[in-house]
Amino acid sequence: MYYIAVLIRSQPSIYPKILDISYQAKYVSMYHCLLFNLHKPHTDNSWARTSGIHRIANHLREQGWDAEVIDFAIAWSFSQLEELAKSRITSNTKFIGFSHMFQMGKSLKNWPASIEKFCAYIKQTYPDIVIITGSQHNPNFISDKVDYSVTGYGEHALDALLKYKFSNGPRPKFNLIKGLAGQKLIHALESYPAHPMREPTLIYEDRDFIFPGEWSTIEFSRGCKFSCSFCNFPVLGVKGDYTRTAEGFRNHIMTNYDRFGIENYMVSDETFNDSTEKITKFADVVETLPWKPYFTGFLRADLLVSRPKDKEELLRMGFLGHFYGIESFNHATGKIIGKGMDPSRLQQGLIDVKKYLLENSNNTYRGMISIIYGLPLETKESLCQTEEWLLANWRDQSLISWGLDLTDNDMGASHSKLSLNYSKYGYKKIEGPYDFKRYTQSFYSTPGNVTITEDEDGDKDDVINWKNENMDLSYAMDKARIIKNKFPLNGGFQIGNLLINKNTNKSATIEERLSITSNQAGWNYTDFTKFISNYIDKKLSL
């Protein structure tokens, strides 16, 4: 087993084959863990396998762990989870992990009842098993059933924790979570940074039951070279080029294509088009592939407009699902938040990019523009001008909009510059609760008739109810919701989240995904219940 672990680390290109052999042979000497994906869909058509838990599983396997991922965990009943535990847990099972915790809020009320009951069952039946939660942003979640929490890119932090618990390693750097003694938090970004990550491999296993045509997520580089004032992404202001290698990228997508038929990807980079050279490097690889992939992800529109060659390289790569974080077409506002291109130049550039890519991609380009209502120096008049331009020039594409979110909590690493210094930017905190539920769904209906309810206040105590000289949060949220509803098409980034076709268990094609409108009731995916049932049955039969 030591030889296999060393071989995997020294020759990662062969590691998928080695893993297949190891799992078929069921090496009982390997440390074992179960990793549960707690992604909570906002609508019935937004189910997806999130990438974080699978990335962690890949990393653990490289360290010699037998790490199994359980997707769609909130659709499992307690009895099914209990059956899974009985069939998997052995003396080598050291911990159970839960991912995507940032959706869970602060309270057990936000956990599905089946998951809460399952954690209590684990604690009672297998008291030596450690329960660990993880989240990209700081987890406000507190539970006496959780032993440790990791926030941020967690590969190295988890290494430190597992060595401490199971290999006589030194005690990690913990932050005790305020409000509950005993549950320890590791700030990975502060104490165990895992950026850059030059080869962030995400290869699935046969026991993940990926179906042909399913989309995956891919990471080209970690962190963002920009530092926009409204942004609370965890790694900002990155210097230098830390993109993955062309060879690593090709091995990654060829393995997933050959083994599982995965052709298309959602890109997780905070800003994919930070350099033309980066796009060209991966477009060159794509042209050597036996198929034409489709990529979706976040792009800075001002860079795309200022570098005309980029749109040609993106087309060559198949990067045709674009999410543009415009945020404001008010020039003064743009300068404050770090996006200061002249709005008229930006708007014309967006029209030109859209026209070029639609004409040269068989109409498979999709562009989504993001607008934030209530940014500094934004006025009601400038917002009206923005809406007029969007309705006149972008109605055939998509829009996402929301009111400015200023947070006020004890987990400072997830604050934006605006949240930390909101009074400096002209905001005042309004006393009294903000009616968070008015603007969010109070429940999510999920396959298997599972209902997830939010806690009573919807975590509104984390949202600053603000006003400035031009508007308040209620006005911003109302206007953002109204304009968004006038753009029914799915966005470039969203189309990857649609997991299966309406009346089949097959992946929706690019054309089918592009034809779906966000308010189309027919895409409730009643057949997804069958897919989930089939997935659970296969998992339990292993």
Structure explained in plain terms:
With 542 residues, the chain is an alpha/beta fold. It folds into 2 domains: 2-195 and 531-541, Rossmann fold, CATH 3.40.50; 211-229 and 240-422 and 467-522, pyruvate-formate lyase- activating enzyme, CATH 3.80.30. The chain has helices at residues 2-10, 15-25, 51-62, 78-88, 113-125, 155-166, 188-191, 246-260, 276-286, 301-306, 309-317, 331-337, 343-360, 380-393, 417-420, 473-484, 510-515, 527-541; strands spanning 32-37, 66-70, 93-99, 130-135, 148-151, 175-176, 184-187, 216-218, 265-267, 295-299, 319-327, 366-373, 398-403, 428-429, 443-446, 450-453, 466-467. The strands form 4 sheets. It has a 7-stranded mixed beta sheet. A 6-stranded parallel beta sheet has the order 8-9-10-11-12-13. Helix 9 links the parallel strand 9 (265-267) and strand 10. Helix 1 runs antiparallel to helix 2, helix 4 (78-88) packs parallel to helix 5 and helix 8 (246-260) packs across helix 9 (276-286).
